Amino acid sequence: MWIIQSDYNNKNAYFSTLEKELISLIDGEKNLIANLANISSWIFHSFPDLNWSGFYLWDENDQELILGPFQGRPACIRIKRERGVCGAAFRSQKTLNVDRIENFPGHIACDSASKSELVIPFTRGVFDLDSPTPFRFSKQDEDELSRIMNNIFKRLQIQ
Ligand code: SME
Fold first, then answer.
1. Which of 33, 57, 94, 104 lies at a C-alpha separation of 20 to 30 Å from 88?
2. Cα dist. 134→2, 106, 138 in Å?
3. Measured in angstroms, how far is the CA atom of residue 83 from the centroid of ligand 1?
4. Alpha-carbon span 25 to 28, nearest angstrom
5. pTM given for the model
6. What is the total count of domains within the chain?
7. Which residue minimizes the CA distance to atom 1 of ligand 1?
């Protein structure tokens, strides 16, 4: 049984515990989809105030990002590289922290509850977090989650 111990109320300890939890979660399992499913679930339940957490994976044949494992309400399935926050983060291969999504040109509204968004790219796709609260993701959240996820992407060999 998995028990989430990362406590967001203690921010300094939170990220180092979260990183250890995610490493242990994927340890010994080589199936990528299973690992991505568990990662999206873990973060959805550990990081407060999210309404969506999940992956889009780049499809080389279709030249689009396609919905992968996630937690939250059903989402749009296909995103072109030119579109949305996910497309922009994938193109630039840089984390995008959008404080108010309605101000982001071309933002794709999958769920009207989403007000802010953090997208962390990797070479084969993106990891997307949505919150119902504007300005949800601080600079510390952005930096620490990017660092942790890049470590996880390396371990999964999808960096
Ligand atoms: N809002 C994203 C689309 C994905 S959903 O938020 C799950 C975007 O603009 O790319």
1. 33
2. 31, 18, 11
3. 9
4. 9
5. 0.96
6. 1
7. 108
